[in-house]
Design a protein that fits this description.
By secondary structure, this protein is of the alpha+beta class. It has one domain. 21% of the residues lie in helices and 25% in strands. It is built from 3 helices and 5 strands; from the N terminus they run E-E-E-E-E-H-H-H. Strands 1-2-3 form a 3-stranded antiparallel beta sheet, with no helix packed on it. The chain has a two-stranded antiparallel ribbon with strand order 4-5. Strand 1 and strand 2 form a beta hairpin.
Length: 118
C-alpha cells in the first residue's frame, strides 16, 4: 500500500496525506482524524475503484466486499449504498494556519500569490 505525508486530491481540491489534519467527512461527525490512507473511503489513494476518496473516522466506515475486490475494503455509508458522496469538510483551522505561516510552505505561498496577481 502507498502512503505519503502530503499530497493533493484534484477531485476534491484539497490536501491529503497522513500529515494533513482533518475532520471526518460524515456530516453528523466532527471527529479529528488525518487525511491518510487509514481513513480514506475505498482504502486506496483517491478512493480506488469503489470508494469516494473522502475521509472518515472508524465509526463512519465499514469493511465491505465489492465487485471490484475480493477483499473487504473500508467504505462510507454513501458508497456502501451506491449514493452520491457527502460534501467534503473544509480544511481545519490548524491546517490553514500551518500553510499560511510555516517556512515549509513559503514557496507555495509565493507561487500562489504571484499567480493571483497575474
Amino acid at each position: 500500500m502507498m502512503y505519503w505525508s502530503i499530497g493533493y486530491d484534484e477531485r476534491w481540491n484539497r490536501d491529503i496525506g497522513f500529515d494533513v489534519p482533518g475532520c471526518c467527512d460524515h456530516p453528523d461527525c466532527n471527529k479529528d482524524i488525518n487525511r491518510g490512507m487509514d481513513h480514506v473511503c475505498g482504502g486506496e489513494p483517491y478512493g480506488g475503484e469503489s470508494g469516494c476518496g473522502l475521509y472518515f473516522c472508524d465509526q463512519h466506515r465499514e469493511a465491505k466486499v465489492t465487485a471490484a475486490s475480493e477483499e473487504a475494503i473500508p467504505l462510507c455509508s454513501q458508497c456502501t449504498a451506491g449514493k452520491e458522496p457527502f460534501t467534503p469538510t473544509p480544511d481545519t483551522e490548524e491546517w490553514v494556519n500551518y500553510k499560511q505561516t510555516s517556512n515549509y510552505w513559503a514557496g507555495w505561498r509565493t507561487y500562489h500569490e504571484n499567480k493571483a496577481s497575474s
